[in-house]
Amino acid sequence: MAPTKVLTGARVVLPTGTVDDGRVIVEGTRIADTAPERAETVDLGGHWVVPGFVDLHNHGGGGASFTGGTAEDVLQGVHTHRLHGTTTVVASAVTGDLDFLARHAGMLAELAQQGEIAGIHFEGPFISPAARARTTRGCCATPTRPRSASWSTRRTDTRA
């Protein structure tokens, strides 16, 4: 079992406001309600303690891409963001060939099931040609009911 630590003296940001000279009790990697008497105390006077950041639109990090990379690339990007205070990441990918997207979605879905990412955000493939910006026309697909159902539910090879 991981040791319990009590972080003291910091300005703590809570959903209800800011607490000066607050106490945050950490058990392993989680914030807990109480601390045993023998808990290690860490004085954070002069610092802030804030909740982890959630990034809902992210294409990668640390030189790695969520858009077309491997599972290892995604994990490298997630690790980089965690080192800088982002605790939750939604992997964003740009549109592409439907078969590639299905394979990539399978790989990202596995990482979501493992808790490495919170979810997946695809920009496409059902983009209006009038709003496609720099996306090539070949990456845009007409959102027919069978195509949408097929793409969103199939799980092919989960390795990108």
UniProtKB/TrEMBL annotation:
Residues 48-132 form the Amidohydrolase-related domain. The keyword Zinc-finger does not apply. SUPFAM superfamilies: Composite domain of metallo-dependent hydrolases, Metallo-dependent hydrolases. Residues 137-147 have a biased composition (Low complexity). Residues 137-160 are annotated as: Disordered. Signal peptide: none annotated. GO terms for biological process: N-acetylglucosamine catabolic process. GO terms for molecular function: N-acetylglucosamine-6-phosphate deacetylase activity. Gene3D superfamilies: Metal-dependent hydrolases, Urease, subunit C, domain 1. Keywords: Hydrolase. Pfam families: Amidohydro_1. The keyword Hydrolase applies. Belongs to the metallo-dependent hydrolases superfamily. NagA family. This is Amidohydrolase-related domain-containing protein. It comes from Streptomyces haneummycinicus.
